[in-house]
Amino acid sequence: MTRAREMKDEGLYMGKLDHGADLLEALAAFCRDKEIRLGWVSAIGAVQRARISFYDQGTQQYQDVDLHQPMEILNLTGNVSLRDGAPIVHAHVTLGDHLGRATGGHLAKGTVVFACEFTVRAFSSEDLVRGHDAVTGLPLWEMDG
Ligand code: ZN
């Protein structure tokens, strides 16, 4: 059954991240600083190197992929919700190399910003809380209705 909650728009932020920052951690820190518990994140820019993850559905484990090269952030899309009482950012990225080839995955810690312009749209609603999902093994949103 498809489940969803209506969100109330609480404003839009646009900003840039510091050169050398960890992409995922810097976005999460911004949300914590602004007390954003629910939101939508997008970004473009470039990274000095990247770590993305692929979720193996069979083993239910993430496999990290390290990309030791500068790449463009062609797209970053993610959301903000709560896990263990704190806001976390779950984001996926598409990255482009020097030949324009794209790769991507689940954004992991260890991706270093070269330059990054981001947008966060903040929402309010009943909290969306992540909890262990027995079927997928993932920390999915707990939604009863
Ligand atoms: Zn993911």
Model description:
By secondary structure, this protein is mainly beta. It is 8% helix and 59% strand. It has one helix at residues 23-33; strands at 8-17, 38-56, 61-67, 71-83, 86-96, 102-107, 112-124, 130-132, 139-141. Strands 1, 2, 3, 4, 5, 6 and 7 form a seven-stranded antiparallel β-sheet that branches. A hairpin with a 6-residue loop joins β8 and β9 (139-141). The longest helix is centred in the N-terminal third of the chain and has 11 residues, at 23-33. The radius of gyration is 16 Å and the shape is globular. The structure holds zinc ion. Zinc ion (ZN) binds at residues 90, 92, 106.
Short note summarizing the structure:
This protein is mainly beta and 145 residues long. It has one helix spanning 23-33, and strands spanning 8-17, 38-56, 61-67, 71-83, 86-96, 102-107, 112-124, 130-132, 139-141.
